[in-house]
Design goal:
The longest helix has 23 residues. By secondary structure, the protein is of the alpha+beta class. Strand 1 and strand 2 form a beta hairpin. The strands form three sheets. The protein has a seven-stranded mixed β-barrel with strand order 5-12-9-10-7-6-13. The protein has a four-stranded antiparallel β-sheet with strand order 1-2-4-3, with helices on one face. A two-stranded antiparallel ribbon has the order 8-11. The protein has two domains: 92 residues, Gyrase A, domain 2, CATH 3.30.1360.40; 125 residues, Beta Barrel (Cyclophilin), CATH 2.40.100.10. The protein is 27% helix and 26% strand. The chain has five helices and 13 strands.
Length: 230
């Protein structure tokens, strides 16, 4: 069900499917790399085509300059890249990239920074220590960034920890709060309202405008949470 449709007058949206799935998301990231590689080659030849691709769960937004290339030609060239993606063996596409070690996020679980830890434990019929153990035992992948700058959607949670969002969102969630919702976990990069179940907090800045790039986590980055003492 792959589709390529215009997204305004200077971008195309490629949709590979309509579900949240780690293997599918890796295909999106591989497609983003293919687009970036062609963009670099086209810049070297003096004929730029693509801007920086923006991956989501199952889709990729690909900007282009309509003054450099027409919509029809852009669509044809992008379709050719998607065709190259389809030729890559699934076993290669689905394999995680392991060149870079996971980024470790130190977390103080429970207490004032994780007010929903006991709730999650009770709802999932677990001890709080089991919630911490399960959450910290998984290596997560950044599916995409969204909601607010630097907010990385990480997946996937162990099945034992899958929880719905809170029925009533909090008006104020502190920066560094670690939450879970559905099959995903995340770190709030700044103070904002939020409805995720908060199980801990980190002092690590995942969004810092003084840093280049400001976001610590990027799509495709692998992440592990490390419990620390209070």
């Amino acid at each position: 069900m792959v589709s390529i449709v215009p997204f305004g007058d200077g971008a195309l949206l490629v949709t590979l499917d309509d579900r949240i799935d780690l293997a599918l998301n890796r295909r999106v990231h591989r497609l983003a790399r293919l687009v970036s590689e062609e963009a670099e080659a086209s810049r070297s030849s003096g004929r730029p085509t693509w801007g920086t691709p923006v991956p989501a769960y199952a889709s990729l937004l690909v900007p282009y300059d309509p003054e450099d290339v027409g919509a029809d030609e852009a669509g044809e060239r992008l379709a050719a890249i998607v065709a190259r993606l389809e030729e890559i063996p699934a076993s290669t596409l689905d394999a995680p990239r392991t060149e870079d070690p996971p980024i470790e996020i130190p977390v103080r679980y429970g207490g004032g920074g994780g007010p929903d830890l006991e709730v999650v434990a009770r709802e999932r019929d677990l001890a709080p220590t089991d919630v911490v153990r399960l959450h910290a035992a998984t290596t997560y992948t950044v599916f995409m960034l969204g909601f607010v700058p630097g907010f990385a959607y990480l997946g996937t949670l162990p099945a034992e920890l899958v929880m719905p969002r809170r029925s009533s969102p909090r008006v104020r969630v502190l920066a560094g709060s670690v939450g879970i919702a559905g099959e995903q976990t995340a770190i709030y990069p700044s103070e904002t309202p939020g409805g995720w179940q908060l199980i801990g907090r980190t002092d690590l800045k995942v969004w810092d405008i003084e840093r280049d790039p400001p976001a610590l986590l990027a799509p495709g980055t692998r992440v592990r949470f490390v419990p620390i003492d209070r």
